[in-house]
Amino acid sequence: MKALTFNYNIPKYLLTGALSRRWPQVISSSWALTGVREVPEPELPGSQWVKIKPKLTGLCGSDLSIMRCKESLTLQPFASFPFIFGHEVCGEIAEMGEAVEGFEVGERVTVMPSLGCVPRGIKPLCPMCVQGRNQLCYNFTEGSLAPGMFVGSNADVAGFISEMGVAHQSMLCKVPEGVSDENVALTEPFATTLHMVAANAIEPGETVLVFGCGAMGLCTIAGLKALHPEVRILAVEPDPFHSGVAHEMGADEVIPPGGKKFYRRIAELTGAKMYTPLGTKPILIGGVDRVFDAVGTTDTIEASLRILDNGGSFNLLGIGAPKGLDWTPVWLKELTLRGIYGAQQEEAHGGRRHTFDLALRLYAEGKVDIGHMVTHRFRLDDWREALEAASAKGKSKAIKVAFTP
Ligand SMILES: [Zn+2]
Ligand SMILES: [Zn+2]
C-alpha cells in the first residue's frame, strides 16, 4: 500500500534542518526523509486492534515540523522510525481483531491517537492513564509497542496518511450520524484546543487572546465560542485571508502582530497602561486575561508575556522552538504558564468527559461546524503539492490540508 513515511537518519535530519529555512522544498526533494512510499499493509498489533481505512486525514503542523527536521531533539526518545504520518483521521473500520467488542466493520470512526498504557498492554495503568490523561502517559517507551507517543510517530502503529492504518479499540471514537467527514477529521485538533480552553477557569467578561489563526488558532476560537460565548476574543494574525476567517468564526478583533502599534492597540482594547522601556519592546500593566498561543515562537511568546494582565495565564500550544526569551514579565506580573498537548478527560461543559467526546457532541448538536477549515485535499501521490500548500499558507489560502487516499 501507499503511505507517507518518515525514514529518520541523523545526518539527513541535521542537514534538512539546516537547509529547510532557505530551501523549503528540501522536505520533498528526492533524498528527503519524507515521502510517499510503497509499504506492506500493516498487521494487527494484537487481538484488540482494528484496521482503519482512512477517508480523510489532516496534515498537522507538527507533521510539517518533523518533515522540516525542526522538531526539538528532546523528543527523539519518544518516537520510533520509520513511521507513517497521520493522526487526524476520519475513517472506516476495515478489519477487527477477534477480541474487539462494540464496533463493526464498515463503521465510521475517529481515533484518539495517544499510545498510552492500554494500547501498550501495560497493567496496572500509570497514574496519568488512570486519570484519562493518556497524552501524559509515563510509559511511551514501554510495553508491547515501539517507543512513540501517538499514532503517526510510532514504527509499530501505522498512521493514517496511508491506505490503511491501525488503532487499539480503546482509541476509537464512534462518530454520530450527520457529522461531516471534514468535522470528524478535525476532531483531534479541535479536541486539543477544547482541552486547552477547559484547563482554564475562564470567567464571564474576560478578554482572551489567540495567537495565530492557522487551524489550531481557529479551532481555539471555535472552542471558546462554544464553551464561553460571553468572553471577548482578540486574535493576532498577519495574513489577511486567515484574519478574515478568524473574524467570521467569532474573533471580536484581529490584530496584525509587530511593532509598537500592536502593543498600543492591545492597551486601548484592555485599558492597560503601556510602558516603553529603552532598548526593548513595550510592556503593558493590565492587559489580556489569558493568551492561547497556537504559534509558540520567540516573537509570539515574548509578545504574549508583555501583553498579559498582572496575574494572567499563558497557554503554550504551538511548537515554534523559541530561543533567547526575556522572562522578566513572568515574575513581574506573576504570570501562570501552562503547556498543552493532546486531549484528555476533563471537567467541561457541565460534566467530566473526554474532550474528543465533547468535540463530537458539539458537532452533533450543531453547535460547532468547522468543516470549512478543510480547504485543500490531495491524493497520496500528490503529497509534494500538499506539503507546498501547507507550507505557504498565505499564498495557498490553506487552513487544513487533508489527504484522501
Ligand atoms: Zn496534530
Ligand atoms: Zn500510562
Automatic annotation (TrEMBL):
Alcohol dehydrogenase-like C-terminal domain location: 215-347
Gene3D superfamilies reported in the protein's UniProt record: Medium-chain alcohol dehydrogenases, catalytic domain, NAD(P)-binding Rossmann-like Domain
GO molecular function, one term: oxidoreductase activity
Family statement: Belongs to the zinc-containing alcohol dehydrogenase family.
InterPro entries recorded: ADH-like_C, ADH-like_N, ADH_Zn_CS, GroES-like_sf, NAD(P)-bd_dom_sf, Zn_alcohol_dh
Keyword Zinc: yes
Coiled coil: none
Keyword terms of this UniProt record: Metal-binding, Oxidoreductase, Zinc
Superkingdom, taxonomy of origin: Bacteria
Essential cofactor(s): Zn(2+)
The protein's name in its UniProt record: Alcohol dehydrogenase
Keyword Oxidoreductase part of the UniProt annotation: yes
Alcohol dehydrogenase-like N-terminal domain: residues covered: 47-177
